[in-house]
Every structure is written in C-alpha cells, then in structure tokens.
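Worked example (supplementary).
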Amino acid sequence: MRRKDEMENLVTRKTPPKGSARNGKGASPSQTTKALITRNLRMAYGEVASEPLPEEWVRLLNQIDGDEGKKS
Amino acid sequence: MSVAPAAFKKELIELLPSLRAFARSLAHNPAQADDLVQDTLVKALANVDRFEQGTNLRAWLFTILRNHYYSQLRKAKREVEDADGKFAARIAVRPEQDGSVDLEDFKVAFAQLADDHREVLTLVGASGCSYEEAAQICGCAAGTIKSRVNRARKKLSEILGLNEHGQPAHGEGRLVQDIAPV
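After joint prediction of all chains, the assembly is encoded as:
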C-alpha cells in the first residue's frame, strides 16, 4: 500500500507543459535553425571551393598522364 | 593503375574543391589545409593501385585526408586551436553580402566547434555526403554521424545565440535571419 504523501504526489503532480521536452537542454535545433546553418555552411564551403587550385596540385595531377605515358 | 587514368584524373579534379573545403574545416589554417590536400594527393597517387574503379573516390580521398590530419595531430600531441577566431577572420575574402546573413560571424562560431563536429557538419551539411558516406569516412556508424550532426548543429546554434526560430536570442544579434520559418 502506498503512503498518503506518495499518493498526493501522484495526484498533484503536474504534467510537463506541451513541447517542454523539445525546449530542454537535449532539444534539437528547429528546422529554421538547421536551414540557417546549412545555408551558411554551403556559403562558406562555396567560397573555399571557388578558390583557384595551386599550381603544385595541377603539376601533381599532370603526373597521372605522365605515369600512364611511361607505362604505355 | 586499376582505374582509367583519364577518368580518375577527371574525377579527382572535380573533387579537389570539396576536398579543400573539408581540409579547411579541419585544419583551421588555410596553408595547413592546402598542405593536407597536397599530402593527400601525393598519397592517393602513390596508392592509386589500391583504388578500385567504381568505388567511392570521394570517400577514399576524404578518408586519406582525415587520417592524415589526425595522424599529424597525434604527432603534434596538441589540439589546433583558434580561440580568438583569427583563422575564421581570414579564411576567405568576404563575399558580397546580400544584407541578410553575416557569414563572418558564422565562420567564427564554426571555428569554435570541436574537430568531430566541424567535420560532420562539413561532410553532411556542406559537401552533400550521405550519413552512410560520412560514416565510412569517419570510421563509425551512420547513427553516430546523425547524432553527432545534431549535437554539432545544437552547439553551433548556442554559440551563435540563436533561438528556436533561428534568430538571435539575446540583444542585438549580428546574424540576420533570412529564411522564413517553416
């Protein structure tokens, strides 16, 4: 049998407000925040991706043709 | 070479910008990032016989770069830091602003994230990797990537001081909301 104070706690315990779990510490960012982050990520990414390639990389890539030429 | 050289080179060239952006997200320093890419290229070309045509070249390259980065970190036995955001401030020429988003603020905040958070956001959020592909690159389960992406977004929104509507929660936030609430 439950004690009286335990029963009172069960009866008077308030249910958490709707949506409170999502606003807690473990909540996921909203779709709007996710979209904002994704947009900025892609902008930052696009900046780097649009930079010209260093000459040294081009030289390295051209080795692929050279290596193949030596084999054939 | 077990792959056609011309096709391999073509795909490699196409992947270089995203490889560079991935390196930039990890390295915190443009010069170090470019060194990482160059070392990755050298390793990839030296081990091209191990790459099988038809498999995922992007995952292969990103994995080489990532392993190399963490190997360097372990050797140095110290974490790369950018506490004052100097890297983020010089990461690239400021783009033309459309008056809607302060990208520089975003970069400063992004630079404050942990390595594993930066890498998953770049892989999944920017370069278009699937969770499975990112998992392959990072050597973990897709579920781990999903939860890591979620935590990274949450941390980033906290650093940016965004509320649940993607707007600055306190004071005069400099990040301007430009996406209509869903």
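Two points are worth noting when inspecting this output. The longest helix of chain B spans residues 5-27. Chain B has two domains: 1-78, 81-177.
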